[in-house]
Amino acid sequence: MGRLILIGETIPMTGFAHRLGRFDFCHVLLHKNALLPWFILVPETDVMDLLDMPDAQRIAAINEAARISQFLKQHLGFPKINFAAIGNVVAQLHLHVVGRKPGDHCWPAPVWGNLPDGPPYAARRIEEIASELSGVCGLRRQ
Questions:
Q1: Which long-range contacts link 82-86 to residues 24+ away (Cβ below 8 Å)?
Q2: Does the pTM exceed 0.85?
Q3: How far apart are CA 44 and CA 62, in angstroms?
Q4: Which structural domains are found in the chain, ordered by start?
Q5: Inter-axis angle of helices 123-137 and 55-74, nearest 10
Q6: How many whole angstroms separate alpha carbon 30 and alpha carbon 36?
Q7: Which of 94, 107, 34, 108 is CA-nearest to residue 64?
Q8: How does pLDDT run across 25-50, given as a tens digit for each residue?
Q9: What pLDDT digit, counting tens, does each position of 62-88 carry?
Q10: Could you give the count of Cα atoms lying within 13 Å of 9 in the half-sphere of its Cβ?
Q11: E-strand spans in the chain?
């Protein structure tokens, strides 16, 4: 799907995620593995760690992640959310918001390192998710 350029850094998009759009502060990506709904939010900041962000930016990023969490719970039916800002592989700050439920492909283990390779999302499903996020959560499509 191209490259995403944020804060002077280029993040390759092909291979791991689909770009869906953006909120006021974060770009919203969808992990390519369709076994679980795994969203990645990339804040527009040069800060590398969530807890080092100024209060207003940290609150904005958390609030946007909370929008995705509510979408996962209310519209996709996932009762549990995994949330993290790990950043060990990709240095640029990014937030993971993953829908979980008992019996999913790696339950009860964490998704990191345990989610098996799965099928990619169909283009139609990516469009449906982006459209739903736009209508329900105010995602701006790009």
A1: 82/110, 82/111, 84/112, 85/49, 85/50, 86/112
A2: yes
A3: 13
A4: 3-137 (3.30.428.10)
A5: 120
A6: 10
A7: 94
A8: 999 999 999 999 999 999 999 999 99
A9: 999 999 999 999 999 999 999 999 888
A10: 15
A11: 3-6, 9-12, 17-22, 26-31, 38-43, 80-84, 95-100
